[in-house]
Amino acid sequence: MLSFGALLLAHLSIVKMRRYQGRLEHSEERLRLSLWGSGDELWDWNIEQGTLFRSSSWQTPVELDPSTSDIPPNRQQIHPQDLDRVSEALSNHLNNQSPYFEATYRILSSDQQWVWVLDRGKVVSFNDQQQARRMTGTLKNIHHIKLAEERLQLFAQCLDSISDAVVICDTNFRILEVNPSFSRITGKDRTKVIQQQFELSLYPTSFMRDIKHTLAKEGSWFGEVQEQKTDGKTYHAELNFNIVRDEQNNIQQYVAVFSDITERKHREEQLSRLANSDTLTGLPNRALFLSQLSELVVAQKRHSLLMFDLDNFKKINDSLGHQLGDNLLCKLTERLSLFPQNKGSLYRLGGDEFAIMLENTNDIHTITSLAKELIKQINLPFFIHQHELAISCSIGIVLFPEDGQDPQTLLRNADTAMYHAKNDGGNRYLFFNDSMNKQAVKRLQIENLIRHGLKEDFFTVYYQPKMDIHSGKLVGMEALVRFITPKRGIISPATFIPVAEETGQIVEIGEVVLRKACQDVKAWIDQELFHGRVAVNLSAKQFMLPFLCEQIDDVLQQTELPSYHLELEITEGTVMQSPTMAIDTMKKLRARGIHLAMDDFGTGYSSLAYLKQFPLNTLKIDKAFVDDMDTARGRNMVDTIVTIAHNLSLTVVAEGVEQKKQLNLLKQLRCEIIQGYYYSKPLSADDFTAFLKQQLPQKPGTKTATQQSALKEIKSVVSGL
């Protein structure tokens, strides 16, 4: 019984021990699973024996030597930059200077990558000298947490350093956080705005409600706003609101980012002023005018337009200088800007051209009253640099929509009306009408016809003889341009020359005339029919060409005509536009052996002081003076011109001679050469060839009937002289 009882007790003890062992294993399994689930690794460091036990529950293992006498253990696996910090923390705990050991550092993993860990531990056993003998703890892989912290820290540093202000608000627009740029831009201290309502003081409360509504609907809001700083100054900002949502997609916060664009707005305003303002007068310029005119047309608003420029402004620039001309424009702007009706409606389109735009009115009485007042104000004298200037203007007026349905048509018609006002003598205003438009269309047709004529060689040269008044012999001829088209026949020079001068086509026409005249004269010289000079007119635009002399050289060289046989006729109006330059050009032409004649003398405003400086050979008396010789005053005028010419050693040519009485008077007044219908009208090249043949001296016994008739006519003319 005792033996059986002992066996029973032993069995019960074994069963109890097995149950205890099972519970222990189960507890250890729970601990191991808990450590594995948490990602922590259990370590047990026997300091005296220098052994280190690890549970190795990491998915990314770290190879540590279990036998280590280092402090801290396996120090060679710790990142060099972290080693001192870990050693100090461990030393403090081992020396009872801290209740536990805790350190974050980088440790080298088995794949040779640095992994951030959180190491925590505590001494659990001491020796008799109260020195640490055993220490246990956990090692946690916090690499992903550390990277997230570094990223958040980077974001925080970025927010602190960026120049844009950042404001984080809750769903009620209460401010949760701001960055330093917010205080710099607004002047508001961070501590004073936290938990305060975000607001824009210069806008009504409905403005923020609209922003919130847009955020809820679209998720963001962007716009330019103005706000006041704490010092009362206003600044401009680009404001951008965005939504921050949680994992359930609910709105959690609002983030506002705004930048101070005050300087940019100021620069934009300056650039806008430069782009839309005239630099000389400060008035709105042509670009802004066209933009606002287009807006009125698109909106179909009734309005009127007055376009005007100054009469003879070019003469002021040429005679008194461009600086004085600019001062005049500035003075004019100041004067016109004083009137309320001109405020905001006066524009400078360029040069001396201005415009006034009247919105919401087509009332004729209002417009004419303004036009009359405008003329009156401009007529008042200006005193500039000791000069008293009296100027006038020409005004063209159009109405929308009557005179045009688009800005281009309105401008073109206003310019046409202004052009007609100037042609009528200036210092007046004219409303646009259909007849003006017809004339403008006709002018455009002539311009296109000239362009086609130049391309198809419809311009030809006619020649009018110049006869010696005493001998009746031919001494030269004037080359005159004729425009002959297949469909419209001969087009009068009075029709196409003014248009050609305005468009600049006169330069190309002049070159055609010069070339053809030189070719014809060279042919007549080669045939021994002619040995005098041909006179070719130079237009003002042609004379001002910088390469005029070179162009004439090329023509003479290509046609092989000696320069002695060429005479160039220049009007006094042309040379007086810039006398100094004219003298220089004329000297260059004379140096080439080319003769120079001044045409239409006495009809312009030439100065005798300049006249004696011009290197001329010939002075031409205009037909208007020849026609006026019936009166004593007219004869005295011609006599004066002839006397001036002779005193300057110039030859005198009278043009437009049609009557024998005129020829006799010119002979008495000592004029040398005459030109006009009395001898011949302008002839084509072929007819002039026949005329030249009639001028040849005939050998006795060889006269044809035609030659005898021509000789008889010449003799009758000479006897009449």
Mean pLDDT: 85
Structural class: alpha+beta
Q: Which geometry do the CA atoms define?
A: elongated
Indicate the proportion of strand residues: 15-25%
For the CA atoms, what is the radius of gyration? 53 Å
Fraction of residues in H or I helices: 40-55%
Quaternary class? single chain
Number of helices: 25
Query: How would a textbook summarize the main sheet?
Result: 8 strands, mixed, barrel
What is the strand arrangement across the widest sheet? Answer: 18-19-21-22-23-24-25-26
Give a count of the beta strands, DSSP E runs of length 2 or more. Answer: 26
Low-confidence stretches: 701-721
Domain PAC: 221-273
InterPro entries: Biofilm_reg_signaling, EAL_dom, EAL_sf, GGDEF_dom, Nucleotide_cyclase, PAC, PAS, PAS-assoc_C
Organism: Alkalimonas collagenimarina
Domain GGDEF: 301-434
Structure description:
This protein is α+β, with helices and mostly antiparallel strands. It is built from 25 helices and 26 strands. The chain is 46% helix and 24% strand. It starts with a helix and ends with a helix. The protein is elongated and about 190 Å long. The strands form five sheets. An eight-stranded mixed barrel has the order 18-19-21-22-23-24-25-26, surrounded by five helices. A five-stranded antiparallel beta sheet has the order 2-1-5-4-3, sandwiched between helices. InterPro entries: Biofilm_reg_signaling, EAL_dom, EAL_sf, GGDEF_dom, Nucleotide_cyclase, PAC, PAS, PAS-assoc_C. Residues 301-434 form the GGDEF domain. Pfam families: EAL (PF00563), GGDEF (PF00990), PAS_3 (PF08447), PAS_9 (PF13426). Residues 221-273 form the PAC domain.
